[in-house]
Write a structure and sequence with these properties.
The structure is a single chain. It is built from eight helices and eleven strands. It has 274 residues and is an alpha/beta fold. β2 and β3 form a beta hairpin. The protein is globular and about 50 Å long. The N terminus is likely disordered. Keywords: Kinase, Transferase. Its EC number is 2.7.1.49. One of its GO terms (molecular function) is hydroxymethylpyrimidine kinase activity.
Length: 274
């Protein structure tokens, strides 16, 4: 058969591009792996900068190796030098040094939307961050992030007191705005009830999102939600529209989810949700 030596076709127009800055989950349910699948589900080209490598599965986290800050910086410089990045999702940072390095690079790109998911503890309860990370995030990243997306336990750590109900959620989100966040999506899944309520609070107002609770212990929902919001922003959607679309996506992906390992954790079917 004669070989085709003609130049390659230029192909279709490049899709929107989003970057995830997060840890690697060897079990494939959260972190970089979940973020890239989420980007793919939205038709977004995914870039990644890895902060840490974890040895984990559906049973738990066995080990965490944090990358040196210069290596994270090199990854970030490489992707910003080549790609037109439409949005950034920040997940597991693991240490204050990595948070500062992330903030240093992002400072040079002030117009790129940033979604900050303050990952502190794994679903299984394992600590994924050093104690000084919270203060470093407050000081260096809150004001840079267009949206902060804590769950109830993460918000409690960030503000220093318990959240018991929806009034407490509103007060906590307002406190996070006072600490410098531009907007807060406080996820209410850890409160009891058959319905899950998430609060989007900005300096202009508030919006509550409600969805039916899906029973069972899930893994990767927070990562996927923040990544889906970043994907929406990369596609040019306004913040509230990106949040609403992302919440619906995660709910559908969780409803279609499955248990891939011997543990109880249910992971999302990202591609089956679109």
């Amino acid at each position: 058969m004669q070989k085709n030596n003609s130049p390659a076709s230029p192909g279709r127009k490049s899709p929107p591009i989003a970057l995830t800055i997060a840890g690697s989950d060897s079990g494939g349910g959260a972190g970089i792996q979940a973020d890239l699948r989420t980007f793919a589900a939205f038709g977004v080209h995914g870039l990644s900068a890895i902060t840490a490598v974890t040895a984990q599965n559906t049973l738990g986290v066995d080990a965490v190796h944090r990358l040196p800050a210069p290596m994270l910086g090199a990854q970030l410089q490489a992707v910003f030098a080549d790609f037109r990045i439409g949005a950034v999702k920040i997940g597991m940072l693991a240490s204050a040094n990595l948070a500062r390095e992330t903030a240093r690079v992002l400072h040079a790109h002030p117009r790129v939307p940033v979604v900050l998911d303050p990952v502190l503890i794994a679903t299984t309860g394992a600590a994924l961050a050093r104690e000084d990370l919270v203060e470093s995030m407050r000081r260096h990243l809150f004001a840079r992030a267009d949206l902060l997306t804590p769950n109830i336990p993460e918000a409690q750590t960030l503000i220093g007191h318990r959240i018991r109900d929806r009034d407490g959620m509103h007060a906590a989100a307002a406190t996070l705005l006072e600490h410098g966040a531009r907007a807060v999506l406080l996820k209410g899944g850890h409160l009891h009830g058959g319905e899950v309520a998430d609060l989007l609070l900005t300096r202009e107002g508030e919006h509550w999102f409600h969805q039916r609770r899906i029973r069972g212990e899930s893994h990767g929902t927070g990562c996927s939600l923040a990544a889906a919001i970043a994907a929406g922003l990369a596609c040019g959607h306004a913040l509230e529209a990106a949040v609403e679309q992302a919440i619906g996506f995660v709910h559908a992906a969780l409803a279609a989810g499955y248990r891939p390992g011997r543990g109880r954790l249910r992971v999302l079917d990202h591609l089956g949700a679109r």
